[in-house]
Design brief:
Length: 455
């Protein structure tokens, strides 16, 4: 494990003017170095708040009168010595204090480095760190729930329990390998091993099954707008977003690439994806857009089949045929431009909307909100669930190893104990990677790259 010897500094509150800003300093010598900018004769006591001037070490000029707190290792967020400077939130004051700290030997923190140090120093596991990020970024109840269950350690605890069972089975196998003639292991069946592996397999299968709903909870429902050119997809996207995001034109094939925008619908998070209209075309660029649109449709949670009122039956039939050929879920048919028809009959189970008058948009919003609730409602009763692809990859890797073990144990043979032990170690390591108990720097780089500076 990398030894962290340098001290870091960053603004922990959002950038910009505000009443109060919090500057956080962390490291082995953070308290000692901070003394160079804090006008105080006596050392900072642990977990006590002090009013003190903060100065420029080069000129001794007082920058601001601040509230100062110290948290000594290991009883701190990062597990290192921490100093917090709470100053007035003017951008100039903040930048002067940060510059003063850098002059005293602190280094500017990288994105997520405070939380990364907390993981490395054992103050939290990797899933709890991911939960902290999700809590910080949460805009809806579904995102908050996803972050909350991670940050409270539910997935960590479930993973540790499963890993414990695998390590117990591994210990028994290794005893058979190292002491083949001992009374406790000689000629004894592998029931002790298979029982634990089967329990772990079932639990991992259940965890994997939560990913589809957990991802919707954390990232939002992926909603792709499919249809022919000029069907009204971009106009519908703008209407649902409440502002003009997509370019709207009467020229067919205007949308070539795709737009992916987050949107709150009745307090639920969805991701609206507008893309090229599906049609045969000789335009090379549009062909690429159509191919990409089809790939995105295959990855969607929900398809909105958008078709204008005047061509509803024809367009619906043509694109439905493609959807069925790809074995994709039945789409929600949205008939646009209903305001242009004096009288109309909608296809069964479809929703008629007008992006001009707003007719039918509330019905569509309710349908999308219901789709989110159907997917995430069951998670309320789950102690732990998976929220991102990294979680699923680790779980599937462990499941694959356990499946291999069970295949090799039919019929059981003592000659393959070493192979079984190897597979068990790999399965246990996959679970270790999930929670960060076993970690690689590249995995940490990916996890913390999306954090904000100062977190």
């Amino acid at each position: 494990m990398k030894v962290l010897t340098d001290s870091i500094v960053a603004l922990s509150t959002p950038a910009g003017a505000g009443g109060v800003a919090v500057i956080r300093l962390s490291g082995i010598d953070a308290i000692v170095r901070a003394a160079a900018v804090i006008c105080r004769k006596f050392p900072l006591r642990d977990r006590h708040a002090y009013i003190a001037n903060v100065k420029d070490p080069a000129t001794s000029e007082v920058i601001d009168r601040c509230l100062i707190l110290a948290f000594r290792a290991p009883r701190s967020f990062t597990g290192e010595n921490i100093v917090e400077i709470q100053c007035h939130g003017g951008p100039y004051i903040v930048q002067r204090i940060l510059k003063a700290c850098l002059a005293c030997g602190f280094r500017a923190a990288e994105p997520g480095e405070f939380t990364r140090r907390a993981v490395i120093n054992g103050k939290m596991d990797l899933t709890e760190a991911e939960g902290l990020r999700e809590l910080i970024e949460a805009q809806t109840e579904q995102e908050w729930r996803a972050g909350k269950q991670l940050s409270e350690g539910h997935l960590k605890n479930a993973t540790l329990e499963l890993r414990k069972k695998l390590l117990e089975a591994l210990a028994y196998l290794e005893a058979r390998i190292d002491f083949p003639d001992e009374g406790d292991t000689a000629g004894v069946s592998l029931q002790h091993v298979t029982t634990r592996i089967e329990t772990a397999r079932k639990a991992l299968a259940h965890l994997a099954s939560t990913y589809a709903s957990g991802r919707v909870s954390a990232e939002g429902l992926r909603v792709c707008l499919v249809g022919a050119p000029n069907a009204g997809k971009s106009s519908l996207m703008n209407a649902l977003l409440g502002h003009d995001r997509a370019i709207v034109s009467a020229i067919p094939g205007t949308t070539r690439d795709y737009l992916d925008e987050k949107c709150l619908v009745s307090g639920r998070l969805i991701r609206l994806i507008d893309m090229a209209g599906l049609r045969e075309t000789s335009d090379l660029v549009e062909q690429l857009g159509v191919a990409r649109a089809k790939d995105l449709a295959r990855q969607a949670d929900i398809l909105l089949l958008v078709t204008p009122m005047e061509d509803a039956v024809q367009d619906t039939a043509a694109i439905l045929s493609w959807i069925k050929s790809e074995s994709l879920p039945d789409p929600i048919v949205v008939v646009t431009k209903v305001d242009l028809a004096k009288a109309y009959t909608l296809p069964p189970e479809s929703i008629g909307v007008s992006n001009i008058t707003g007719e039918g948009l509330d019905q569509l919003r309710k349908r999308l909100a219901d789709e989110v609730d159907q997917r995430t409602g069951s998670l309320r009763n789950e102690a732990a669930w998976l929220t991102n692809a990294r979680h699923l990859e680790c779980v599937e890797r462990a499941r694959s190893r356990l499946d291999t073990i069970m295949e090799r144990m039919q019929p059981a043979s003592g000659d393959q104990d070493e192979i079984l032990a190897f597979e068990l170690r790999e399965a246990a390591q996959a679970l270790g990677l999930l929670i960060g108990e076993v970690y690689a720097d590249d995995v940490l780089d990916v996890v913390f790259s999306s954090f904000c500076i100062g977190k």
